[in-house]
């Protein structure tokens, strides 16, 4: 199958393996201080992305380094807006130095999952996207609350699916507490992606559900991440 496949990876999260897969991906989401990442790490990843012509996105999260942004925290709308804006601004400062533009925003972890179903959270993220002076794409799951609200407000949405994660019937990701949550076999990941490209995904309970995807994420912390990324690139061209 020779379809151009947009592969994205979350980077700057302390794994320090970005140089291995950056040549094989199309876009990256750089942690900008909420759950991980600092000026030095952002700069390193921006330069790597620039070198390999990889589109750069901001990967803001709940301000929660303790739980790596993977838990919902109690935070007011105003404070959430302020921290997201500050995180994205810190990455923009690095991009300005490198004469690059921000391509997209992809929320991280619990924030991403909450915005997929919660209107308040989705609207705060949308207001942050709208506050940036030039058009920015939003990476969001198909059928999510945030994707629908963003489209209604003329924000370009890129539907994201996960090449290395299993799905529940409502298109939420199977919790990492489930031993079958993560796909680590390259051939299984390729089959999973092929099916999604055709518009369906087989959920954890074996039912096929409609889905759309413009970009596929592989998690950098997947023990087989490099092999999966190379396998997808080889298979899809």
TrEMBL record:
What is this enzyme's EC?
3.5.2.9
Record's keyword terms, sorted: Hydrolase
Q: Which CDD domains is this protein grouped with?
A: LamB_YcsF_like_1 (cd10801)
Which Pfam families does its entry note?
LamB_YcsF
The record's GO molecular-function terms, alphabetically, read: 5-oxoprolinase (ATP-hydrolyzing) activity
Q: Which residues form a coiled coil?
A: none
Asked whether the keyword Hydrolase is assigned, the reply is: yes
The protein here is known as 5-oxoprolinase subunit PxpA
- InterPro entries in the record, alphabetically? Glyco_hydro/deAcase_b/a-brl, LamB/YcsF/PxpA-like
PANTHER family attached to this UniProt entry:
5-OXOPROLINASE SUBUNIT A, UNCHARACTERIZED PROTEIN YBGL-RELATED
